[in-house]
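In response to a reviewer's request, we include the raw inputs and outputs for one of the modeled complexes. The two entities were modeled together in a single run.
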Amino acid sequence: MNCEKQMSMLKKIQEMQFVAVELNLYLDTHPCDVEAINDFNCAVKMLEKRKQAYQDEFGPLFNFGFGGYSKEPWQWVESPWPWEI
Amino acid sequence: MWIYEKSLQHPVKVTRPDVSFAKLVVTQYGGPDGELGASLRYLNQRYSMPTNKAIALLTDIGTEELAHMEMIAALVYKLTEGASPKDYEAAGWGGHYVQHNHGLFWTDANGVPWSAQYIACLGDPIADLTEDMAAEQKARVTYEHLIEMTNDPCVKDMLRFLWQREVVHFQRFGECLNDIQEHMGKKNMWCGCTVEK
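The model returned the following structure tokens for the whole complex.
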């Protein structure tokens, strides 16, 4: 497993996810801010791309079918778990 | 429904294990102003909120708090990784080792177990949002105290991230409270009752 690559791809996801979280909370109390909605949608687009690339290589990042497909054997049970990184 | 993402919200790293600090920071796991209480408080208050905005905000901040709880759990895990019973004893946390070994448990820094008494739900949006704003301030201060108690730059970094999130949440709850006051047709910030017109 290419651990360094996995960590750097995961970090890119965390970064974009933070942008999405922050804009999401802001929009909850400023629902008419068009510019922020555009920024949010832009972050979602980038996030989708990064998640897709990560999951294609390292298996599902989310459980219950919300992530990508699994290769064999079942990739979800493979390390690393977040606290092991 | 909640979906699990196999990733922390923000990286958690430690320079070296430190059982003494694990004993202190565990309060943000299961203490009165910790992340478990925060997530449960907000997710539970959603049902009696009068506006969609307030419901959305409590859902989203409550969900983010679950991610913070996982960050604190990861921190405690790393601070105690490879620690021996003697290490626990030397850190004054021998009682934790005896009862939980390397397992985590919901307590504050003094070993008091988590209690539902740490959270409130009055079913009144003004009372509940005011409680939420106070909760964010209490968590902010606790993080400041914790940052003072460690010299590990990696640990300080992640605690600063969590500190900053409390500030943002306080701001958003404040905006939400103002919105609710307007919704209730009474702009007096300090009076919880609605006045009949």
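As requested, we also summarize the result in words. The first helix of chain B runs from residue 19 to 25. Chain B has a mean pLDDT of 95.
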